[in-house]
## 1
Amino acid sequence: MVVQHPLIEFDCSMDSLEPAVIMGLLKKNDSLQEEALKIHVSYIADECAKRFKPRGVYKLFNPTICTLPPTYTEPAIKLVGTMMVFKGKTVYDRLKRATHCALLSVTLDSETVIDTLREQLCYNDFDSHIFDACCAMMLERAADMISAEIIRVAREKTLYTDERLCPGEGDLPLNTRDQILFYTQAEKRLGIHLTSESEPVPRLSLFGVIGMYDKTQKGRRRACGRCKYRDYCSIRAVGMNCHGDKGSFK
Ligand code: SF4
């Protein structure tokens, strides 16, 4: 029997963005002193954090290897109970031993909200660079937030996880976004749609998949020290981890 997992909506709002990280993303601007730049960046970052309401949605599926030539002549992974097929070696290598995977879609906010705030905050190209850096960082953080939540859910099921894989990485085709959008209902839930070239509208949207593995795949260890989800990790916050140190996973 195919188990149907629920679709989960997730609020990725955040209180603040660290100006130091955004400044690291900007090209040096000699016309502004370091302190003045920090104040300027902080102002735009604070407004972005206050005004944007990033949201995401995820759903668990059970992947399986496609084994029906001649239909599937390349390595491919199918999601049980759906028409979704992942193509390419990158995703095949990630998911061929996974028992579950999570599809996720995230968006920063609507184009209207983003454009309105841009108009209010940006008076020159440099302001626009700062604004773009803040938007990109917020989207990435929202995706990290939902990824941390997926890892928490996996751990509850005593499953190990891998890094988030997004369309466009390795040989995973960009048009995989179309299927992730469909199976996470991201159009209805988040208001995202895709152009004929699979470009998202709102542009600041992101799609991905995270593999989940049973304890036979314990070798896929993560490390808290270099984990990009650690700021949002509720597992580590209670003194545990997701990567199975002795005693953590039975
Ligand atoms: S911070 Fe550690 S426990 Fe948390 S998701 Fe990352 S690797 Fe896992």
## 2
Amino acid sequence: MAESPQTHQKFDLTILGASGFTGKYVIREALKFLNTPSSPLKSIALAGRNPEKLAQSLKWASHPAPPPSLSIIKADISDPSSLLQLCKQTKLILNCVGPFRLYGEPVVSACVDVGCDYLDICGEPEFMERMEWIYHEKGVERGSLVVSACGFDSVPAELGVMFNSRQWVAPRAPNCVEAYVSLESDKRIVGNFGTFESAVLGVASVEKLQELRRSRPRRARPVDRVDLASPLDDNPDQDSGTPPPKGSTVEHQKKIGLWAVKLPSADSIVVRRTLSVLTENPGGIAGVNESNEQVERRENFWSTVKPAHFGVKIGFKSLLSIIRIVTLGIFIGLFGRFSLGRWLLLKFPSIFTLGWFRKKGPSEEEVRSASFKMWFIGRGYSDVTLASQGNKKPDMEIVTRITGPEIGYLTTPIILLQCALIVLSQRDNLPKGGVLTPGIVFGPTDLQERLEQNGISFDLVSKNPSSA
Ligand SMILES: NC(=O)c1ccc[n+]([C@@H]2O[C@H](COP(=O)([O-])OP(=O)(O)OC[C@H]3O[C@@H](n4cnc5c(N)ncnc54)[C@H](OP(=O)(O)O)[C@@H]3O)[C@@H](O)[C@H]2O)c1
């Protein structure tokens, strides 16, 4: 096994922003794998601007056991030298400091400078695409792997599309996959302020994202799909295909018993970036030091993933909940454009979100009672040759589903930790470096099996002739 530039670092991983609401759940998940048999995780450091808060979070995360002795490192986003020092000591940074558009870049920059690997739980497309634009080449050169969206945003979407797509065995082929996210709980479903703030600031950066895309060369789009749908149809600048019919704004999806509306999350954008990279590299991206066997395994994996149009909706059992979410969307969409509106939203999150987001986050009980289901309804052809026969409509449907615990503070830490363990144990099989999507980096690894072993399941629900 070749030595990576990070082989001699003091810590296997450092959790930055470990004092945050999500950060403390990430510590709790990480402790489950510290020094356990066959775990590559032998040392963890906690980092942030307030050592006392970090120590409190460690105490909370290890309760009822006494806190283990972990190194606590002071690092502030506004102090680049503290970040460089931090990155020099660790193989891998798990960044939980958000909103990422405000605080993320100095961390990526320090990791790339030093050549350490970086994962985060960002769900902000503008930040992710900007980092790719600025740091990809340097990351490749320095051997620093930078992967955003290693949480509920957007790993279930990435792996879910692949899982659905892989059920379409030739001559079958998918045309589009629509995902429906459904959040369930006996208690209230509540998110922490940090996620709300990231969403509100996201509205203000929509135009920046469009500007950024206009300034960049066009990305490749999947060319061998069996429809004309563009993978980039949220991005008119890059869209040259005809997407499947849009359908109504509010949809009643009888098959899964949900009312649904489009979810403006990062998922579809991240999946499209993955498909674009795949179009440019049909066998995926080579590992830094992979064996011939691994090359074959990776290429075989990607040969079973067929690109398809992808969209995400959020679904509820009642129409009333749809009205609530649309109202929330309108508030964020309108108020988020102006600084006074943003101030009001961020000052009174509970009022404007009708209780969905709280400054102090959900209680432990609310977190424990929540769960999610993410349905993937794939439509396509029972025989791929049908697709070339004019306007022949899809005649087959495959429904798959991912289920798991609460999304922000249980599922996200589970995903982030499993991605981290893969980086630590299978680095030779992963790309040398660069800013890449979780799908491209972790798709051909055992991430799905690992998530299944940790409470997130992937099921084939049905394969039927299409009724659509
Ligand atoms: N992908 C997903 O599905 C998912 C799930 C959950 C959360 N998230 C994202 O994760 C991010 C964090 O959310 P959260 O609810 O955990 O927020 P939070 O509770 O506000 O935590 C923010 C963290 O950032 C730290 N921080 C802020 N400014 C800093 C600075 N200048 N230097 C160093 N550290 C600094 C805070 O430190 P202090 O404690 O010292 O203030 C805290 O540890 C958000 O962007 C959210 O959208 C994503």
